[in-house]
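Full entry
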Amino acid sequence: MLAALIFLVALATSHQSYLAVSAVYFALLVTAIFAAGLPPAAVLRRAALVLPFSLVFAAMSVASGDTTRAISLVVKSYLSALVVLVLVSTTPLPQLLGGLERTAVPRFLLLVVQFLYRYLFVISEEAQHMRAAAAAKGGSMGRVISRRRHFGAAAGAVGVLFARSYARAEAIHLAMLARGFAGHFRPLAKSSFRKLDAAFLAGAVAAIVLLRAAIEAWT
């Protein structure tokens, strides 16, 4: 996680020769993707989901006559999304949040993220139950209905989904309180900063900083 943060800082602060620096950083990320055993095409495609948002601001920069800034914005936003995807794909959420907690991130924010992550599965499970119930009652037989009734049925289903999810989440919260939950998730296994982690962090930081310095000095 620290290596990813340093990578993002180095990427954001590269102004001179940013295209060359971005190309080298992209090669490093692709190498990390292959080393982690992730599907390269899927990761690169998912990182492109950020492009529609960055292209809007890039178009504003082009309209103001700053084409260089527009290109820099698109390239850096894509690489930043790629870094986050690699980090999330290779680090379990409990370990990631534990690392953020050790870096003095407010516990309230981490608690919100943890509850959001867990309750997404609650909503998904309730949606699957409703879908199975609708299929059992013939609700997925492709009957021809008017568009107004279709949207009305969809709105009602969404309302029922959130009502059931809220009731389920409330029951889960009460069960957690009954088991002694005091506002902090206890990990099943405590992780510590090992010598291997220190070596990886030192190597990653050295590669990021030295490559950027070498490219900027060469150009």
